[in-house]
Amino acid sequence: MNYAEAFMVLVVVGAAFHICWVAVLLGLVLFRGAFSGTSNLAALLQVVVMFSYLTLIGRRALGLSTAGSLWRAAVIVLIGAACSAAINYVAFRLYVLGW
């Protein structure tokens, strides 16, 4: 894969996540009314969508075995989560504590 193909994969995964997220939020509004505290739900949904898409891409586009695509998708999702947590931690420290 080259840079353009990787970029398109990220665009498709991002679009799929946002479509799923809109459906979840619409369901919450229709069935529960007002709600709060959906950031954990969003993070879980994002992990599920990213993992699913990366696994499918590994299997169908790259021709990897099921085990190969699963562990590669898991590694990418874990690295992404670690980077996101690190960036959020540093931003929080800088903004709140002036560190």
Describe the structure.
The chain contains three helices and no strands. It has 99 residues and is mostly helical.
Compile the SSE list and pairings:
Elements: H1 3-32, H2 39-61, H3 66-97
**How many strands, which pairing sense, and closed or not: the largest β-sheet?**
none
Described by the principal axes of the CA atoms, the overall outline is globular
Number of helical segments with 4 or more residues = 3
The structural class is mainly alpha
Could you spell the SSE succession in H and E letters? Answer: HHH
N- to C-terminal separation?
A: 40 Å
Portion in helices: over 70%
Low-confidence stretches: none
CA radius of gyration is: 17 Å
Instruction: Give the DSSP E fraction (strand runs of 2 or more residues).
Output: under 5%
The number of E-state strands comes to: 0
Mean pLDDT across the residues is 83
Kindly summarize this structure in a few lines.
The chain has 99 residues and is mainly alpha-helical.
Which features does this protein show?
99 residues, single chain, globular, 3 helices, mainly alpha
